[in-house]
Amino acid sequence: MTGAILFHGDDHDIIVAAMRKKAMELLEVSSVEALLCHGDYQEVAPTSKSYLYSMETIHSVVEESCLPPYRGKKRIIALHAVDRMLPVHANALLKTLEDAPLNFIMMLTTTAYDVIIKTILSRVQKEHVRGSKELDDYSLQLKHMVQMVNEDKYESFFKEVELLDKLISEDNMVSEGKFRHFLELFMKVYLSVDAPDNLFAARSGHIQKRIHNALIAFQGNIRVKHIIENLFLESQLQSYNTQ
Predict the structure, then answer these.
(1) How far does CA 132 lie from the centroid of its chain?
(2) Confidence (pTM)
(3) Residues 224-238, buried b or exposed e (16+ Cβ, 10 A)?
């Protein structure tokens, strides 16, 4: 693997999630919390009022890149928003990007790929991270699944869940972004059903709580299919109970 990886796309949150997922794999940790507390992982971002990197920050990154790992076999420094570097700052990183120690990896993020200078682009591995606008639209599939549950066609429903599990989980780099996208659509589908105001409010509050719990379960490495099944069936039960 190259000593530097640039994660780029149009959604900052999804890019950061993809970068952290890769870092978790490399450092062999199982949660974002464990990653952020790991002695061999560091995240750096611009701190000035103009949201630009300072030369002091860049020099610190270069010095840190020369240190050996504290706990494992790799050290990782992640630089957010590298498009917020002036050319002089970017040039100061070139030697580190080109001659990084074998046990060091620099991860870079940007939502402005075209702004990155060519000398940086030529020295990094590039990972395009699909943003929310590029993710699949599951709306029709969700509506069909709601209909299956309403008609007690559970065998067909579980087959659709298996398919969704594969679609959402097939690309580990963007699976969290895909799942968040799916959950947002889930809410829209359920809240688009005509209902009295009191029923609408009750359903809205319950589904928002269920989505919050679903994201926690996802971060805990619970299989997507099990989360979806519970999300559908428990939300459907709540819908019946409020009628």
Answers:
(1) 10
(2) 0.58
(3) bbebbbebbeebeeb
Instruction: Say how far apart CA 122 and CA 57 lie, in whole Å.
Output: 22
Is residue 111 within 8 Å of residue 82, measured between CB atoms?
Answer: no
Q: Which of 16, 12, 35 is nearest to 25 (CA)?
A: 35
- Which residue do the tokens 């640039």 mark? 6
Q: 124 with 108: CB under 8 angstroms?
A: yes
The helix/strand count (H/E) of the chain reads as: 10, 5
Q: How far apart are CA 214 and CA 216, in angstroms?
A: 5
Please state which architecture CATH assigns to domain 4-130: 3-Layer(aba) Sandwich (3.40)
**How do residues 141-192 score in pLDDT, each as one tens digit?**
777 777 787 788 888 888 888 877 877 776 554 566 677 777 877 777 666 6
Asked whether the beta carbons of 60 and 97 are under 8 A apart, the reply is no
DSSP codes, 174-193 = THHHHHHHHHHHHHHHHHTS
How far apart are alpha carbons 36 and 38 in whole angstroms?
6
Question: At residue 1, what is the residue type?
Answer: M
- Give the chain's residues under pLDDT 70: 1-2, 131-137, 139, 170-177, 189-207, 235-243
Q: Which residues are registered as beta bridge partners of 105?
A: 76
Which class for 122: exposed (0-12), middle (13-18), buried (19 or more C-beta within 10 A)?
Answer: exposed
Whole-angstrom CA distances from 174 to 60, 69, 128 are 30, 28, 10
Tokens of residue 7, six digits: 């994660």
Distances (CA, A) of 202 to 3, 179, 180, 235: 51, 24, 22, 11
Closest CA to 84 of 118, 55, 116: 116
